From TrEMBL:
One of its GO terms (molecular function) is 4-hydroxy-3-methylbut-2-enyl diphosphate reductase activity. The gene is ispH. Pathway: Isoprenoid biosynthesis; isopentenyl diphosphate biosynthesis via DXP pathway; isopentenyl diphosphate from 1-deoxy-D-xylulose 5-phosphate: step 6/6; Isoprenoid biosynthesis; dimethylallyl diphosphate biosynthesis; dimethylallyl diphosphate from (2E)-4-hydroxy-3-methylbutenyl diphosphate: step 1/1. This is 4-hydroxy-3-methylbut-2-enyl diphosphate reductase. Pfam families: LYTB.
Amino acid sequence: MTLPPLTILLAAPRGFCAGVDRAIKIVEMAIEKWGAPVYVRHEIVHNKYVVDGLRAKGAVFVEELDDCPPDRPVIFSAHGVPKAVPAEAERRRMVYVDATCPLVSKVHIEAARHAENGLQIIMIGHAGHPETIGTMGQLPDGDVLLVETEADVATVAPRDPQALAFVTQTTLSVDDTAGIVAALKARFPAIVGPHKEDICYATTNRQEAVKAAAPRADALLVVGAPNSSNSKRLVDVGARAGCAYAQLVQRAADIDFRALDGIRTLAVTAGASAPETLVTEVIDAFRARWDVTVELVETAQENVEFKVPRVLRAPA
């Protein structure tokens, strides 16, 4: 039987970013250094395939420090943690390694500096997301106010409208965030912004690649986890860019092929915590049903690399 033709527009950059790659290496190196089990507070990154792979090597994932025995190492996830968490680990004399993405740590430092200068912080982010919890937890309760939408800006009630700064979650929609920032500046003209954009390079690059591919496609599939903020934003970006069908899938088994019947062009990308092997799996699933031609849609090249903590590095 002759297979129908399908062009896959493969977005680039896609998949693992430097912060995710570093966090995974930290867990693997910790297991190598200290042996199993090594405990990880929260999923190291938001991807089931990655987490299951590390669990098989000896990582134990827990949600709170209280779930970790004091005599085993604990790693803090790439999303960052409130200041109270490492403080409690030190009080309990635990060995811990902080795998917070350096670009998230940059936001933490920024917020602390603004607070030292007497400014109250407004954070643009998603309530309940571990990165938002970690950033807001760098300062005492009440020192950071959360806004999620432009509508929230109208109701936020700072202590002093003349003494404000804002920071953002690193994995937000670039376009949505620009609208919220504009609303903040309109209501609070004196508000201080970050020295350099808080939304990370990887989030921005992956969204730009989707904007380039999605308008040309009948459908868009984003490989990523349902609890991955940056992956869900890629779906939103694709839909906004004009793609009539934009869906998040964790693996090839999640693809609804009935909904894709008759398509001739498919855009494929992956969130920053999704490994390339899952992208290959998705493409192979289409090769089994279509005569596939892959076209790379590349909008940027990435060569960022973050060092692992000194405690895990081999002696010079």
